[in-house]
Structures are given as C-alpha cells and as structure tokens.
C-alpha cells in the first residue's frame, strides 16, 4: 500500500480538522461508535515526513491526548514493533520532543500509545532543563522538524520529594537544586513536607510550569520557533494512580 493511503496513529485525518474531537466526544458519551482512527484498517509502520508535516502542533497534542485515552481504556492501536523498526531505520520524522522524569512508571510511548519513531525523549529525574537538554530540544525542533515540546511531570515524583526534603547525595544534590525554586514558588498553606502528597504534586506541577518558562528564557532557538507558531511548548502531569495525562499548558 502506498504511503498516502495509510493512516498513522499520530496523524490527524481531515475529519479532525472538522471538529473530529467534538464528534468523538459526543459519540463516545452516547456509546455510539469507536473513534474513526480506532477502526482505521491500515496504518503506516512509522510516521513519514509528509504525515508529520501535515499536522499542526495542536493536532499532535490532541493525538497524544487520544493515545492516553486509549491507554486508560486498556486499548491500543494495532502495531508491529518490527515493522516500525524497519520503516524508521533509514530516517525519522518524530512529531514531538518530550522532557519527562526517569520514573519507571511513566514511559511516554506506553502511556500515550505511541510507537517507534513518533517522539524524541529527554528523560532526567524531575524533568528539569539544562543546556544539554535544551540542545537536544533545539536539535529535535530546529533540525529535525518536531513541532511540540512537551514537559511532563508526574505525581509522587521521587525527585520532587528529594528536593522538598533537601536530600544531599553526590551529583543528585545539584540536580535537586534545580527543582528547589518550584518548592519555594508553590503556594500551599498545609504541611510542606515530602510525605504530604498533595503538596508534592503541587510542587511537581509548579516545576513543569517553571521548566517551560526556563526553556523559553534560555533557548532563543525554541522561543523563536514558538513565536513563529512553528512549534508549541506545552506541559503535562501524569497521574500514576489513574493513568491520566493532564495537559496543563
Ligand atoms: Zn519523577
């Protein structure tokens, strides 16, 4: 089958541009039908250049949301990793670059039903940014054409707890220092400790917000791309208990 005849899970169809999400939401609520993308008979084995470039940053974020909704329903797109590996071996056209925590329970591709070649991944404890992370993001967006920068924190994050508790250990001390501004900036009247999960999760969310602000501040390349509406910089929080990715910015 030729490339243009195939749909990829990340790719939006024209139905999407006509308010597809709204119609899916009402159809799902009414229990009428599965979203059209779920019943797509054929799919590409890896995101192609043309497919990626046909999507807007907003459509890519919507596709990630729909992927997480499938994950939460216990569903996933039919996929063959070997076919994806073969199809992407000679070139990659990822739609987004994600900055997320190293936590073993928050694997981006799994929780958003994505495949090989769909996204770039930066993973570091507490999803903080530094010049190497920014360099990776600039490579992903400016040189490779990714259209979304997504910073994803998560609930019950050990790095956030460590920053709150002033943990000191080798190189970890310096990493946690990058999270401490989020601890200070979190407005919370209750117990501000690492064992108080509501506070820990509020700090994690603030850390995502501050990291996004730092990306815009520290990367002229990415802010320029965002100013041109070539890319979108967004945030999310993954809830370990519910499996839900909450897009927050
Ligand atoms: Zn974490």
UniProtKB/TrEMBL annotation:
<keyword id="KW-0862">Zinc</keyword>
<feature type="binding site">
    <location>
        <position position="154"/>
    </location>
    <ligand>
        <name>Zn(2+)</name>
    </ligand>
</feature>
<feature type="binding site">
    <location>
        <position position="157"/>
    </location>
    <ligand>
        <name>Zn(2+)</name>
    </ligand>
</feature>
<dbReference type="GO" id="GO:0008270">
    <property type="term" value="F:zinc ion binding"/>
</dbReference>
<protein>
    <submittedName>
        <fullName>Carbonic anhydrases</fullName>
    </submittedName>
</protein>
<dbReference type="GO" id="GO:0004089">
    <property type="term" value="F:carbonate dehydratase activity"/>
</dbReference>
<dbReference type="Pfam" id="PF00484">
    <property type="entry name" value="Pro_CA"/>
</dbReference>
<feature type="binding site">
    <location>
        <position position="101"/>
    </location>
    <ligand>
        <name>Zn(2+)</name>
    </ligand>
</feature>
<keyword id="KW-0479">Metal-binding</keyword>
<feature type="binding site">
    <location>
        <position position="103"/>
    </location>
    <ligand>
        <name>Zn(2+)</name>
    </ligand>
</feature>
<dbReference type="InterPro" id="IPR036874">
    <property type="entry name" value="Carbonic_anhydrase_sf"/>
</dbReference>
<comment type="similarity">
    <text>Belongs to the beta-class carbonic anhydrase family.</text>
</comment>
<dbReference type="InterPro" id="IPR001765">
    <property type="entry name" value="Carbonic_anhydrase"/>
</dbReference>
<dbReference type="InterPro" id="IPR006311">
    <property type="entry name" value="TAT_signal"/>
</dbReference>
